[in-house]
């Protein structure tokens, strides 16, 4: 019973943040405004979060954790992209609201997430091969072009309301480069 109440409270806080981010800048949102919109008192808020920065960082980490989990559980590139885009679409309200915040540069968050996956020890050799096969320029610039293009496609899709299906977006992304080069 307590767990359900805590989950419901966090959901109310999340929804309040989404609503407020669509109305004003993160910098002007106070814990008092969040509490009022969520229908809770400040003490309840502070049971879950240190402050508004902790709240938004926690939500960002939840998104990244789920994307990373999807990456670890899915080996097929096509299925992985669909799975992650489906997750982003299902959480569009939150992701769109967060992406509008200048405090949390969501475009950079997407880029950092992709960079951490592409350059980890497990995928480094595949990434180097992929970049060499797709780009006739030095690796560091090739990586930047790749990251920027994928991040740009995803960011535009989110800011446009995720109208295209994850399948349509996956097909679009897969047409941009030779992803068969991931296989050595």
UniProtKB/TrEMBL annotation:
Q: What SUPFAM superfamilies has UniProt attached to this entry? A: Homeodomain-like
Ranges for domain HTH tetR-type come to 7-67
Q: Which PROSITE patterns match?
A: HTH_TETR_2
Keywords of this protein's UniProt record, alphabetized? DNA-binding
Q: Which residues bind DNA?
A: 30-49
Tell me where on the tree of life, at the top rank, the source sits: Bacteria
Q: Name one GO molecular function term.
A: DNA binding
Q: Does the keyword RNA-binding apply?
A: no
Any Pfam family from its record, for instance, is: TetR_C_8
Instruction: Indicate what this protein is called per its UniProt record.
Output: Transcriptional regulator, TetR family
Which species does the entry assign this protein to?
Answer: Streptococcus constellatus subsp. pharyngis SK1060 = CCUG 46377
């Amino acid at each position: 019973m307590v767990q359900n109440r805590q989950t419901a409270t966090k959901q109310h806080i999340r929804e309040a943040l989404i609503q407020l981010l669509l109305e004003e800048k993160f910098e002007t949102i106070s814990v008092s405004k969040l509490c009022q919109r969520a229908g809770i008192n400040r003490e309840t808020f502070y049971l879950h979060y240190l402050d508004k920065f902790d709240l938004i960082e926690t939500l960002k980490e939840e998104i990244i954790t789920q994307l990373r989990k999807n990456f670890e559980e899915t080996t097929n590139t096509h299925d992985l992209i669909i799975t992650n885009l489906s997750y982003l679409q299902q959480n569009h309200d939150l992701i769109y609201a967060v992406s509008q915040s200048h405090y949390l540069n969501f475009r950079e968050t997407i880029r950092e997430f992709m960079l951490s996956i592409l350059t980890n020890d497990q995928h480094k050799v595949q990434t180097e091969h992929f970049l060499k096969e797709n780009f006739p320029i030095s690796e560091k610039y090739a990586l930047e072009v790749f990251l920027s293009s994928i991040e740009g496609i995803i960011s535009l899709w989110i800011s446009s309301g995720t109208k295209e299906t994850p399948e349509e977006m996956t097909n679009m992304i897969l047409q941009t480069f030779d992803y068969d080069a991931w296989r050595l």
